[in-house]
Specification:
The structure is a single chain. The protein has 174 residues and is an alpha+beta fold. It is built from seven helices and seven strands. The chain has a seven-stranded antiparallel sheet with strand order 1-2-3-4-7-5-6. Helix 2 packs antiparallel against helix 4.
Length: 174
């Protein structure tokens, strides 16, 4: 409900299924939220997940999304100083949602960020996501209520990208 309210459309949860992965199960798991009750891959998506080392929340488009070019073009034309100001401190940018870590938004130059936005438009297997990570130790030290509040706030902050990813006319980072 929090994400639905933040973006103004119903969002549906899609829990990772590792049904055929008993022999070599993945090192991570996640739940994705998108506007489609049937799947998340073709739409701009919020993902909350965990690796052994950290928990994360991300928003963006993955390689199967028809909105890849839309978000890529939007990022290329944005005032990147405004983008950096609107997104949470510690935001990371990911070119591959299956690889942990990403790049610190603060450490990326405008040219590097625009190159990632161009890449998602040109490379079939490219993703473009923005997110925040919490180290395992930090999460374990938080109360459940504190973690939930932190997660909700980060989702709200990342939601400013949703209208851009959907190509809404006149969309800005407001």
């Amino acid at each position: 409900p929090v994400i639905s309210q933040a973006v103004g459309v119903p969002m549906y949860a899609h829990v990772a299924r590792h049904a055929r992965r008993k022999t070599n199960p993945p090192n991570d798991s996640w739940v994705a939220f998108s506007q489609d009750p049937r799947g998340y891959k073709k739409w701009p998506t919020f993902m909350v997940g965990l690796w052994q080392t950290h928990v994360y929340v991300q928003f963006g488009v993955i390689y199967e999304s028809a909105q890849k070019a839309v978000l890529g073009q939007a990022v290329q034309t944005l005032d990147l100083a405004q983008l950096r100001e609107k997104l949470p401190v510690g935001t990371r940018v990911y070119g591959d949602y299956m690889v942990p870590g990403g790049n610190s938004l603060a450490a990326l130059s405008d040219e590097q960020l625009r190159a990632l936005a161009q890449r998602v438009q040109e490379v079939k297997k490219a993703d473009l996501l923005f997110g925040v990570e919490w180290p395992r130790e930090t999460v374990l030290a938080m109360s459940p209520n504190a973690f939930e509040a932190n997660l909700i706030e980060r989702c709200r902050q990342l939601a400013v990208l949703y209208p851009l990813a959907m190509g809404k006319e006149g969309a800005t980072l407001s």
